[in-house]
Amino acid sequence: MSQPNLVPEGEWATELAELQQRRAHALAMGGPEALAKFKASGRMNARERIAQLIDAGSFREVGALAGKGHYNREGQFERLDPTNAIVGTGRIQGRKVALHADDFTIRAGSSEATIADKWIYIERLAHQLRLPLIRLVDSAGGSVKLLMQIGGTKIPEYPSWPANELLKTVPVVGVALGACAGQGAIKVLSSHFSVMVREQAQVMAAGPHVVRQAYAQDVDKNDLGGHMVHRKSALVHNEAEDEADALAQVQRFLSYLPRSVFHLAPVTPPSDDPQRADDWLKNAIPRDRRKIYDPRKILASVMDQGSLFEIGRYQGGSVITALARLNGVPVGVIANDPKVQGGAMTLQAAYKMERHVKLCSQFGLPVVNFVDQPGNQTGLEAEVAGTLLGATRVGEALHDCASPWVSILMRRCFGMAGALHGPKYGEALNLRYAWPSARWGSIPIEGGVMAAHKAEIEGAPDPAAKRAELETFYLNMTSPFRTAEKFGIMDIIDPRETRAILCDWVEDAWALVQTSGRIAG
Description:
GO terms for molecular function: ligase activity. This protein is α/β, with parallel strands linked by helices.
């Protein structure tokens, strides 16, 4: 927060002068040399990151004077060594948030080179005042030098830190901007959305030095906890090209979320025609069932233009999870991607879908699911991984989901995983539409024909022709129109009608969110 240019004067001039001096020392952070060295590495310092993230002039710092004071023999103040946690509140697009940033220029941002009460206080404030919380993490974790400060050890705990209660109450964001080890890693991961800077950030239990001592293994920090590692681990949702991109992703994520579970998500003025119908959608799904297509192009066409924000693109790639808007209303989006594992439900995809369903349900976002689900991943690798358990957890999340939900069946919907296209228990309406290209059942026709008619196909003069003949016969029986005759599907729609139907639906879905009783204040 910029300070007014006030000249110390009057009866308290001495104290006011000291206040300005202490504030200046806090703003100096780790000092000119440390700041210059950090800048030379191509990174923004903690205060620059805060300025980049929040609205200009909106940062109101808390605890700026916390640190280690130095005094002369007469007890007069000389200088302040500030703590390496900068905390306070600010605004993003006018909306209030709480945040704290690690200052790497002071003891490499070590979590034990600060006053824990300071960063815990801002998190408690976020919880009690129901403010979204952002952690800008650049921390080397614990330090053995703490032993010299306290003359002993401590049990590793922060009993006053409301980490789990925060996750139940407000949107929490973790941003990895450097080496985030130990407690720093937990601050990134204990969140609803996390993002890390490629090649610059690492998220790990402990750094290479600790690993070398424990396992006699030499490993590079990026190989240990960099973005390529977490593409596989799914610990961190997104990756960013640079710090500016990471902070922009934070701003965008929060633009879809409410202040807390006690508030409504922000609806923006409509900027796109709800009746817009892109003609190419009629041919978006290839007639050849073995050909793939680009589901992201379909999502971009149906949702408000420019509103799609994907979460976790590089993990569990057979399912896409995103936030978007329909006629200005924020919604959660799920879609299968046939380019990855054929769109099948893998263990990682199940975890990703479960996580997204819970996020949308907790914060009152209606959900649209674009379905092309061939079923659970099969094979030895899938069974050893426990894929079916992941799918079972998706079913549990759907059962508990409080969000209004609609499914658009675009192509396939088979087996147990296909049954997980939306909530359908208790009072949940099985609200679903299908495109003419959709097919469903207990097993895909291609695999089912070979399993049921193996001997007949292999004994035919032309096995390939016989198989094609049988597949055609069964496919005719799986026409979605036959299901519509029995009202097993709400309606078959022209793909070009999808946006208009969803924009009409979201009006009622949003009215339900507003009056459902989940909003307590």
